[in-house]
Inverse folding.
C-alpha cells in the first residue's frame, strides 16, 4: 500500500458545490435535490404546503428547513421549481415580483411541457433559466433517487448555459437529451402517450383478469408486458401481434361484446386503440387488406354504454384526480 496516496476527496469537498432549494415538494423535487446532495451539493431550503409534501421533504431531505418560496430563493444558489405544469407560469411571475431573485442564480424547472421561455420573468430579474425534465415516473420515495441512474432528461437551455445544464443532469445520474424550445409540447405529449396511458391500460387489464377469475393478474401480465415492451422498443410496429394485427374480426367482436357486458367503461378505449393498431398494422403490411374490411367494420361500431347511458357516460368508472 502506498502510504503517500492521497485520500479520495469527499463529495462535499469538490469545487463549485451549490446550495440547493426546492419550491414544491411533490414527487420530483425532493428526489432531484437528494441526488444532487449525493455529489456534494447542499440542500438548504424547501417549500411544502400539504402534509404529504412535508412528509416527502422530511424523508428525502432530512434536516432541511421548510420555508416560504421567497425564502428558498434567498438561501439557494440553485432553485428547483417542481410544481405542476399549469402552476409554473404564475409561480415564475410571483417569484419575480418578490424581488428575491439574485443575478446569476440558477433556476431550474422540471416541466416537460415548457422550455425556458416560461421563466422569462425570472430571467429579466437576473436568473439563469434551465428546463430539465426527467423522463421518469416518480413515487415520492427514496427509490426515485436510484431510478435517476441512466434516466434521460429533456433539456432546454440558452446556448451559454448548455454546459451547466449538461453537468447538472450528469451529476444527478441522468443523460441529457436536447429538446428545442418549440418542440417541448410535442416531446411531452409523446412521453404522456407512452407512459401515462400505459398505466391506465395495465390497470384496466389487471381488473379484467381479476373479473375473469385470475388470482394473480400482476404475475400473469409481468412476463407478457415485459416481452411486449422489449419487442416494441427493439422493433416498433413489427412487434405487433394479436387478433387485430391478424385480422381476426370474430375474436375482436367477441372482445367488444364481453367488455360491454362486464366493463363498459373500457369499450371506448379498446375500440380507439384497436383502430389505431389496425391502421398501423395495415400501413406496415402486417394486416392483410382482405381481412381488414370485416375488422374495421367491427371497430366502427359506436361505443354504446350501459343501459340508459351514452358511451361517454359509461366510461366514467369513478372519480378522477391528480395526485402530485
Amino acid at each position: 500500500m502506498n502510504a503517500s496516496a492521497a485520500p479520495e476527496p469527499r463529495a462535499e469537498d469538490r469545487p463549485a458545490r451549490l446550495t440547493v432549494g426546492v419550491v414544491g415538494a411533490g414527487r420530483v423535487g425532493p428526489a432531484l435535490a437528494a441526488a444532487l446532495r449525493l455529489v456534494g451539493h447542499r440542500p438548504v431550503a424547501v417549500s411544502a404546503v400539504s402534509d404529504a409534501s412535508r412528509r416527502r421533504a422530511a424523508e428525502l431531505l432530512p434536516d432541511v428547513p421548510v420555508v416560504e418560496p421567497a425564502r428558498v430563493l434567498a438561501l439557494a444558489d440553485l432553485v428547483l421549481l417542481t410544481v405542476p405544469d399549469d402552476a409554473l407560469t404564475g409561480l415564475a411571475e410571483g417569484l419575480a415580483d418578490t424581488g428575491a431573485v439574485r443575478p446569476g442564480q440558477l433556476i431550474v424547472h422540471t416541466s416537460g411541457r415548457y422550455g425556458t421561455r416560461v421563466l422569462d420573468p425570472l430571467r429579466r430579474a437576473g436568473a439563469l433559466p434551465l428546463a430539465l425534465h426527467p423522463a421518469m415516473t416518480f413515487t415520492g420515495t427514496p427509490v426515485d433517487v436510484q431510478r435517476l441512474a441512466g434516466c434521460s432528461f429533456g433539456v432546454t437551455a440558452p446556448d451559454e448555459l448548455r454546459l451547466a445544464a449538461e453537468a447538472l443532469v450528469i451529476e444527478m445520474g441522468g443523460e441529457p437529451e436536447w429538446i428545442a424550445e418549440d418542440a417541448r409540447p410535442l416531446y411531452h405529449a409523446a412521453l404522456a402517450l407512452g407512459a401515462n396511458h400505459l398505466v391506465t391500460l395495465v390497470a384496466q387489464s389487471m381488473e379484467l383478469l381479476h373479473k375473469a377469475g385470475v388470482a394473480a393478474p400482476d404475475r400473469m401480465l409481468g412476463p407478457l408486458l415485459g416481452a411486449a415492451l422489449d419487442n416494441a422498443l427493439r422493433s416498433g410496429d413489427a412487434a405487433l401481434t394479436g387478433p387485430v394485427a391478424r385480422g381476426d374480426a370474430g375474436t375482436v367482436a367477441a372482445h367488444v361484446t364481453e367488455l360491454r357486458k362486464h366493463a363498459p367503461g373500457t369499450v371506448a378505449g379498446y375500440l380507439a386503440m384497436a383502430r389505431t393498431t389496425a391502421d398501423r398494422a395495415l400501413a406496415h403490411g402486417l394486416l392483410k387488406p382482405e381481412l381488414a374490411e370485416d375488422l374495421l367494420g367491427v371497430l366502427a361500431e359506436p361505443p354504446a354504454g350501459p343501459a340508459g347511458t351514452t358511451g361517454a357516460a359509461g366510461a366514467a368508472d369513478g372519480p378522477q384526480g391528480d395526485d402530485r
About this structure: Confidence is low (pLDDT under 50) at residues 6-15, 305-324. The chain is about 50% helix and 10% strand. Residues 184-211 form the longest helix (28 residues). The longest strand covers residues 128-134.
